[in-house]
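Quick start: read one record
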Amino acid sequence: MNTAGNNLAENRTVPDTTPAELDAALAAASRAAGPLAALRPAERAALLRAAADALDAAAGELVPIAIAESSLPEARLTGEVARSSGQLRLFADALEEGSYLEVIIDTADQDAAPVPRPDLRRMLVPLGPVLVFAASNFPFAFSVPGGDTASALAAGAPVVLKAHPGHPELSERTGRVLVDALRAAGAPEGTFAVVHGMDAGTSALTDPRIKAAAFTGSVRGGRALLDIATSRPEPIPFYGELGSLNPVFVTPAAVAARGETIADGYVSSFTLGTGQFCTKPGLLFLPEGHGLEERLVGAVRGTAPAGMLSDRIRAGHAEERERLEGLGPVRTLVHGADAAPGVAPTLLATTAKELLADPDPLLQECFGPTSIVVEYSGPEELLAAAEAFGGNLTATVHAEGADAPTLPPLLDLLRERTGRLVYNGWPTGVAVAWAMHHGGPYPATTASVHTSVGTTAVRRFLRPICYQNTPQALLPDALRDGNALGLPRRINGVVTRDAL
């Protein structure tokens, strides 16, 4: 996911954070870590709801700033504010439900085999201050009030957020909204701060007071930060969402049943948000003789040009599109010429045989409204194409009931390479829900076992602690016999909310 800086930012006046200011923010976050972690889940839930309410109340002020700095339309940004505040409230619900703590109690058993068992009580606790690198393509939902911020605060971890240079004024103002709301709701000073500048981000990443980091952006940028995080004297977890091609595989039966609908849906998906979604489908695999080329071309040509986040991102898309069009195996079905102020979509085509002959040049993310149609000759070639992919956030299959006996091998291959399998749908549009997984094997992310969307995202900023034979008075409330917090707990193998 390319998230280069916005050209408008060069004319803005938000200065980079000075070393002294950064040190003050990190010191405040370090001081806040203990008090924030000590709050009961319901108390942290109240903080998140206060932040959500303040964000909604400030939407009328924040959205115009976002429009000026991102070129995104008002309706999109207004919806993104609602998504961000809704995400904060969802994490508040998860805190009150309580299972995120993964409380497990095995009481002492002198008769256990092969040896007696001590009293063991396990739960999750916050890691400590978290550094979040904001993204450009979602100025709210993956930026200052985004999922990384919400999940870290829910975990009980203070957040130092490195603002994206694409929307510095929006970041500064949104940060003030959150800081003021958290302070008014009783959060410890230092619970949240926004810093600016590349030097501030890399310096914070090396600071021993930071205990984990999260990032959404390019493979190159994310990998550089990952290397810094893991080469510290005390390595820390680094949760990077990097790049994804999000392939779509369509069976002959699906083409026969609803080919034109699939063609229209694909074009709508890869051009949504001017192709600047991390879940944009980059390749569409269709069987030979699909007969949909005219429909696809018409749908692409009928899609109006739209603005991109910045001139730098627009130039990067044009460069990558030119590289793809210059490859021997690729033919251009529609060349979407850039015309101020918008960018028109581009549709390319090749064959699975040509892709498999030299996959690397074709299997690179093009951030923007360009996608590739790939024709395959049969099931074996389709499976070989699926096997050529690295890690992805999503993979999509369009099929019919009659395909059921032939689908398991394809789904098995895709399961190894993706974090979310979409069946007869489209990958754009990531529901903020308990079951959502927004992650995948490298290079989609640097930590395939975690998600950046959905309630289980909180798990990234927690670690287990086990108490053995510890007196009741010294245990956290969550582990005491009485279960005063009313948490779901696994006691001697059985999940219950009952007291011991």
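Confidence is low (pLDDT under 50) at residues 2-11.
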